[in-house]
């Protein structure tokens, strides 16, 4: 009977070049751990320990490795990801959360904590996807928040609502979170203290060479791309809507493409924002835009 360790090592040695190209940073140790976790999810405890590797094409182990050979992201294979110290449900209907987005969460938490003495604050998470940004903020704030999470895609909102169900007990008991389907901020919303957003920010043609092939094949294009000739208009509309939905002294924090944030900063100032700053991520790349309405 072949063990998970030997099965993973054989696969890793045979497919090492492919794995390095499609799963950057994937180690043999992690591959073994992912294989065990996936297989364990299909077997009851007694069956798992009696037969760590089930032979045959329909076995969980073989199914997992066949998906890896197709370069399916590990998060989609497992059906979950880890983000900001918590585990979240994900499907191909939502983007896989990236580590750099954790900085957006940290900035939002700091902003809200500085203003928590003002009473219950309104937070809007635009383009929420899996909901990890809104839910991470809610889980880390030990004071009440009124949160609305929006997305244009109803399937993405279903994922976000499931994650809310899974994480609701880690949230302050007086906080509230609702979900609304809408394009950008084109809907009936209260005035907000803070808007956070991780919108599509890749130009479909100009930026395409910088997008990993795995992302192109498997992640939702609606959450990634804007056509080049629509890019400026998309953000002009978004900034105007955000400005209207913010209270005086309110702010918008958003993630963006390093090649376009300076231009978006200038555009936001034309759309009524009084203060705009481009901020860097932990790698030193320009990654975020902070806007304030006065």
Key features of this structure:
294 residues, alpha/beta, Rossmann fold, single chain, two-stranded antiparallel ribbon, 2 domains
Compose a concise summary of this entry.
The chain has 294 residues and is α/β, with parallel strands linked by helices. Helix content is 41%, strand content 20%.
Written account of the structure:
With 294 residues, the chain is an alpha/beta fold. The protein has two domains: 4-71, no CATH class; 101-292, 3-Layer(aba) Sandwich (Rossmann fold), CATH 3.40.50. Helix content is 41%, strand content 20%. The chain is built from twelve helices and eleven strands. The protein has helices at residues 4-14, 16-22, 28-40, 45-50, 60-69, 74-78, 101-114, 132-140, 154-167, 213-218, 231-245, 261-270; strands at 80-83, 86-89, 121-126, 145-151, 176-181, 192-197, 202-203, 225-226, 246-255, 275-280, 286-292. Strands 5-4-3-6-9-11-10 form a seven-stranded mixed sheet, with helices on both faces. Strands 1-2 form a two-stranded antiparallel ribbon. Strands 7-8 form a two-stranded parallel sheet. A hairpin with a 2-residue loop joins β1 (80-83) and β2. The radius of gyration is 21 Å and the shape is globular. Residues 44-57 have low confidence and may be disordered.
CATH topology of the largest domain: Rossmann fold
Class from helix and strand fractions: alpha/beta
Q: Would you report the number of β strands?
A: 11
Question: Which residues form runs of ≥5 with pLDDT under 50?
Answer: 44-57
**Range of strand content:** 15-25%
Q: Report the end-to-end length measured between terminal Cα atoms.
A: 68 Å
* CATH class categorisation of the largest domain: Alpha Beta
CATH architecture of the largest domain: 3-Layer(aba) Sandwich
Q: Which sheet architecture does the biggest sheet show?
A: 7 strands, mixed
- Rg, Cα atoms, Å: 21 Å
For the record, the count of structural domains works out to 2
Q: What gross morphology would you assign?
A: globular
Fraction of helical residues = 40-55%
């Amino acid at each position: 009977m072949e063990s998970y360790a030997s099965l993973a090592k054989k696969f890793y040695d045979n497919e090492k070049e492919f794995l390095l190209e499609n799963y950057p940073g994937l180690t043999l140790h992690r591959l073994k751990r992912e294989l065990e976790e996936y297989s364990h999810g299909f077997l009851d405890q007694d069956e798992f320990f009696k037969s760590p590797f089930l032979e045959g094409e329909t076995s969980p182990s073989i199914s997992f490795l066949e998906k890896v050979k197709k370069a399916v992201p590990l998060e989609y294979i497992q059906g979950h990801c880890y983000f900001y110290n918590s585990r979240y449900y994900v499907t191909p209907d939502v983007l896989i959360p990236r580590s750099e987005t954790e900085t957006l969460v940290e900035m939002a938490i700091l902003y809200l904590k500085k203003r928590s003495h003002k009473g219950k604050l309104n937070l809007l998470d635009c383009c929420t996807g899996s909901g990890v940004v809104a839910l991470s903020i809610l889980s880390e704030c030990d004071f009440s928040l009124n949160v609305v999470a929006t997305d244009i895609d109803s399937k993405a909102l279903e994922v976000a609502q499931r994650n809310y169900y899974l994480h609701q007990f880690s949230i302050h008991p007086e906080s509230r979170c609702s979900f609304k389907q809408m394009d950008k901020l084109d809907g009936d919303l209260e005035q907000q203290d803070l808007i956070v957003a991780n919108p599509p920010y890749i130009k479909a043609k100009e930026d395409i060479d910088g997008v990993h092939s795995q992302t192109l094949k498997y992640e939702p294009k609606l959450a990634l791309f804007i056509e080049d000739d629509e890019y400026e208009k998309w953000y002009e509309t978004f900034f105007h809507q955000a400005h209207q939905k913010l209270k005086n002294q309110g702010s918008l924090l958003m993630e963006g493409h390093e090649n376009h944030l300076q231009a978006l900063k200038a555009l936001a100032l034309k759309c009524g924002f009084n203060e705009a700053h481009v901020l860097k991520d932990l790698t030193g790349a320009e990654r975020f835009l902070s806007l304030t309405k006065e």
